[in-house]
Amino acid sequence: MINFYSFKNKSYLVSLALIILTIIIIFFKGLNLGIDFKGGLNFEVKSNLTTNQLNEYFDFIDSDREVLIKREVGSDVFSIRIESGNNNPVFIEEIKNIIDQNPDIEILLSEYIEPTFSEELIKNSIYALASSLLVIAVYVWIRFDWQFAASGIFALLHDVFVAIGFMSLFNIEFNLTMIAALLLIAGYSINDTIVLFDRLRSLTSNEENKDNFETNVNNSIKLNLRRTILTSFTTILALLCLVFLAPVNLTEMPIVFIFGVLIGTFSSLFLVLGIVGDLNYEAVLKARDS
Amino acid sequence: MIIFKQWRLWVSLLLLIGSYIFIKPNFESQTSDSKINFGLDIQGGFSYLLELNEEEYLNNLLVKTSQYIENTYSISSSIDNGEIVISKNQNLDALTNIVIQNLGLEINEKSDKENSYIFSKQSFNKSLSDMTLNAVEIVRSRVDFLGNKELSIQKVGLNKILLEIPGDLDNNVKEVISKTAKLTLHLEKNNIVGSKTFINEETGEQVRVQEIPNITGDFIQDASLQYNQNEPVVAFSFNKEGSDLFAKMTSENVGSRFAIVLDGSLITAPVIRESITGGSGQISGGFTNETANNLAIILKSGSLPTQIKIIQEKQIGPTLGQEGVEKGVIASIIALIAITLFMIIYYKISGFFTVITIISCLSLLFAMMSLLNTTLTLPGVIGIVLTIGMCVDANVLIFERIRENFKHNIEDPKNHGFNSAYVTILDSNLTTLFAAIFLFAFGFGPIRGFSISLIIGIISSLIVTYIILKLFINITSIKYLGLQR
Predict the structure, then answer these.
(1) Which of A100, A278, B69, B302 has the highest CB neighbour number within 10 Å of its CB?
(2) Is the Cβ of B1 closer than 8 Å to some Cβ of chain A?
């Protein structure tokens, strides 16, 4: 029988290392912000040209404007992203005409976002995320105890943050759809965590074995282990199908989510209950007796 | 038979029949309000997010309010930096607190000489929002006149309008939605004071006219494309009030010129040959069929309250959407088959129950989405995938609990196991549900699409597990559930 609780200090170290690594990666590589958050033009085009040939069309653009051309893996689809600056309709028309009038390029998708609006989108996403995190914290606090709420929110932020680091490392574009993927990871993470909390609560409220906190933690994990592995496995199975079959511009999302599932499984098995213990939940249980 | 004594059986049948009834309209050709719509990212099309100019609106509102105070209470005021400043060297008795409040104003600064007022945040936002609703109708009628029938147009936030049109791009759309279309008629005036020169940007023609318009486009009742000696012109007619003004202006000024100005630039400056009493006129000047038609559409829809700016523009070709749907459907079906195969191999009969539960969950989900006339987008599909994941997870939790109870010889392992697992499921699903509701309330675009299908999905999953899965567990002896190992 694995003693999960005894691993907790080592797990904290692993988690700390992951967080530091993420900070370093984001610091040096930055986030590959899409036009949702930066404004500008974005095209998905189908073409037989090479990346270099495509690049030549946009050579005339000032070098302080970012032009990013990327071939989607294993296809003849390219994504072209061009920074436009604020209120610049002439430039936008010019770029559109270049792409529109080229017989070798077929436009699948074209998109423009005014930079002032993307600032609003960032604000808006942060509000949405923050408010839903708050709701989760309050709900867990009401249903359980504050130690659980704190630990659950920590695990959730940890999983989402490390997933952002993963995206930065592999240069995956950060856009509104990716926010949905991160939310998916958050939802998955909190779901997993609460299942464990529920078990721990029911074990600790049982008269016979409530005294040994460590055993209770281990039993909670052990009794849920099969479920955790099964659920992760079926989810990853479904996601793998999406990776290989999703349209070219959407393959990145399931990859990020698979990473999220793995990291979420790690944090629920090794982190959350340890944190609850270290927040001195035992004292709460003892106080309840007397 | 024990099965007929189960209330769950009848509820299950009701659920299935209900789902069937609500899903059915999606496969019928006629349009209906209870159908799932497909987002632009799925069916292809183009969308514009328009923003009305908040600052310009504030200025208009300040001018209007200041004029109102002057006309109604004979109190003069000036406008300075977003404030209405009222000097105290006049009789201010009429300006009671109630009047100020009704105007939506609140005091900003008081001094011995003057008081300054600003619009209260609440009243300004309400007014801004009303203005946007009005603009939505104007934009809708403009696009309607172009003959786009399936468009969706809605107000977003306080001063934004989202316009979505499925299908191919019509270049005229951008043209007609982005023009403010402030049409004004000005009489020629030669002294410098109170006059302004307007220039025709194409021909270079210019004319000096009085700055305050004699007649505005607000009086226009109808406008259409017509031909004058084979040349396209825009014919317009005024309503009663406008006709009277127009007749008065033309009869008093025979022989002089007047300017027709659209959005600040001169279109044409004809000479008045005789008084025009019919209340109708024509605008000519180098139109093509298309531009004349666009102008007629804009004029009859009325002018927008402020300038409009396109802050987001999206165009999705039908191939990408089509490919997305085909691949997405294939991927989902393969994923479903993979999961069901795995569950059946692992849980035997119980795994088979999971398959039925998932299918019922999906039917209920689509039924509710149809009923609510939801728009399904690709992020929405991802929300559905998460829902299936949570539904499978619920099944696994229940089966594992029953197995555990069975192993420890706990009395009535099926009911006990189901009930204790269902508490856990409620806790975890409700947390996600509340989070999703808040995301829906505050989010935008893809985030909303994702959260709406998650909300509906969680509800369906909770219902079908409680009704349908439990029904199957109840009627199957534990020996056959396949959970003994």
Answers:
(1) B69
(2) no
Residues 6+ apart with CB under 8 A from A166: A172, A256, A259
| Residue (of B51, B39, B46, B42) closest to B164 by Cα position | B46
Could you give the CA distance from residue A257 to residue A163 in angstroms, rounded to a whole number? 8
By the CB < 8 Å criterion, does B56 face chain A?
A: no
Chain A interface includes B162 (CB < 8 A): no
ipTM greater than 0.90, yes or no? Answer: no
Task: Give the contacts of B430 (CB within 8 A, at least 6 positions apart).
Answer: A139
Q: Which of A201, A177, A10, A35 is nearest to A110 (CA)?
A: A35
- What's the pLDDT score for residue A289? 64
pLDDT digits (tens, 9 = 90+) for A73-85: 777 888 888 888 7
Instruction: Provide the token pair at B176.
Output: 């007609």
Paired tokens of A49: 């040209």
Which residue of B343, B396, B446 is in closest CB contact with A177? B446
| Shortest CA gap B99–chain A (Å) | 35
Which CATH architecture best describes the domain A4-33+118-289?
A: Up-down Bundle (1.20)
Tell me which residue in A132, A176, A195 faces B435 most closely, judged by beta carbons.
Answer: A132
Which position has the higher pLDDT, B278 or B372? B372
Q: From the CA of B468, how many Å to the nearest CA of chain A?
A: 21
Residue ranges of B 436-465 with Cβ closer than 8 A to chain A: 436-439, 441-447, 449-451, 454
Helix, strand or coil, per DSSP, at residue A43: strand
pLDDT of res. A211:
65
Record the tokens describing residue A154, joined without a space.
């920590």
| Distance from the Cα of residue B480 to its chain's centroid | 53
The alpha-carbon radius of gyration of chain A (Å, integer) is 24
Any A CB within 8 A of B49 CB: yes
Question: Taking CB atoms and an 8 Å cutoff, what residues of chain B touch A224?
Answer: 400
Q: Euclidean distance between the first and final Cα of chain B, in Å? A: 29
All structural domains of chain B, each given as residue ranges with its CATH number in brackets, are 2-44+317-480 (1.20.1640.10), 55-123 (3.30.70), 183-311 (3.30.1360.200)
Architecture of domain A40-113: 2-Layer Sandwich (3.30)
Q: How far apart, in whole angstroms, are the C-alpha atoms of residue B172 and residue B147?
A: 11
Ordered by start, the domain boundaries in chain A are 4-33+118-289, 40-113
Residues of A in contact with B455 (CB under 8 A): none
| Matching residue, tokens 């994941």 | B389
A99: Cβ contacts below 8 Å, ≥ 6 apart: A43, A45, A57, A80, A105, A107, A110
In chain A, the N- to C-terminal Cα span, in Å, equals 33
Rounded Cα distance between A196 and A222, Å, is 10
- Amino acid making up residue B40: L
**Rounded to an integer, what distance in angstroms lies between the CA atom of residue B143 and that of residue B297?**
9
Residues of chain B found within 8 Å of residue A112, distances taken between Cβ atoms = 310, 312-314
Contacts of B382 (CB under 8 A, 6+ apart): A180, A181, A184, A253, B450
pTM of the predicted structure, to 2 decimals: 0.80
Which candidate from A108, A224, A245 shows the least CB-CB separation from B330? Answer: A245
Query: What pLDDT sits at residue B363?
Result: 94
Tokens, residue A127: 């509000």
